[in-house]
Amino acid sequence: xxxxxxxxxxxxxxxxxxxxxxxxxxxxxxxxxxxxxxxxxxxxxxxxxxxxxxxxxxxxxxxxxxxxxxxxxxxxxxxxxxxxxxxxxxxxxxxxxxxxxxxxxxxxxxxxxxxxxxxxxxxxxxxxxxxxxxxxxxxxxxxxxxxxxxxxxxxxxxxxxxxxxxxxxxxxxxxxxxxxxxxxxxxxxxxxxxxxxxxxxxxxxxxxxxxxxxxxxxxxxxxxxxxxxxxxxxxxxxxxxxxxxxxxxxxxxxxxxxxxxxxxxxxxxxxxxxxxxxxxxxxxxxxxxxxxxxxxxxxxxxxxxxxxxxxxxxxxxxxxxxxxx
Length: 325
Hints:
By secondary structure, this protein is an alpha/beta fold. 40% of the residues lie in helices and 17% in strands. The longest helix has 21 residues, at 95-115. It starts with 6 loop residues before the first strand and ends in a 6-residue tail after the last helix.
C-alpha cells in the first residue's frame, strides 16, 4: 500500500473527479483530510463516508474558498495537497463573483494555508484543458501539448469565462508555488466522463447524458476531448507519488466527434435507438487536431479505452435512474 502512513488533503472532495480521487487514495492506504462546503449536506458527505476505508482513514472538514484561513485545519499535518475545488459553470450572470474570484482567490487562499505547513511540499492542482487550448485558431492536423497556454485576453473577448477562470487560477498557482517553495504539478483534463460516485449530476456528466438521450451537442463543433474520470484521479495520485512529475499534464484519452460517441452507444445499447439519428454507413469525419498523451503516459497513466468509458458512463447513469431503456 503506497499511501500507508501518509496524510494528504483533498479540497472540494464531493466533486466528480475529487470523489474518485478520495476513493483511489483510500484504496492505496492513504489517510485523507477532505474538505466540503457543508458538513450538514448529506449530498456532499454520504457517498464519501460510505467508501471502503473511510471509517478508519477519512476525516471531513468544512471549508470555503472565499474565507481566508478556512483550509488551515484541513492541510495541517499533510504531505500533499490535492486542490480540486473550483466552480465548473459554463453559463454565468456575474463571471467575477461566480467563477473568477472563487477560482483565483480561492486557489491562493488554499495555497496560503498549504505554505504554512512544513511537512507539505507538493501540491497537485486540478486545472483544465480550458487553460491550454484557447489562444489561436488551432491549425488542422496539429497535436496540442503541454506547451500550449490559453490567452486570458482571448478568453475575455470570446466571453469564455470558465476558460478564463481556469487559466488565471493555474497561472496564479504556479507563481505562488514558485515564490513559496511549493512543488506544483497541474493536471489538465479534457471533457471528463465515466461512472459517477457523487449523488448529484456534474456538468460534464449532464452534457454526455444530454448527448446520449437527445443528441444534444455540448460543443458547437461537436468535438469532444474525452477522458475517463478514473484516469484523471489516477494521474493526480501519480503526480504526487512520482518524484519526476513536473509542470502540467494534458489528460485526454481520445478526441472524437459526437457522431462517433453515438455510434459506440448504438453498438453497445441498440435499444436506445441511436442508429435512426444518422444514415447507415455515414462516416465520421476525422478530427481536425489531436492532443498529446505522451507526457501523461510517461507519468504512468494508461488511458481507459473509449468504449469502456462510454459503457461505464451509461451504466452509471442507468443505475442512478437518469437514463432508462
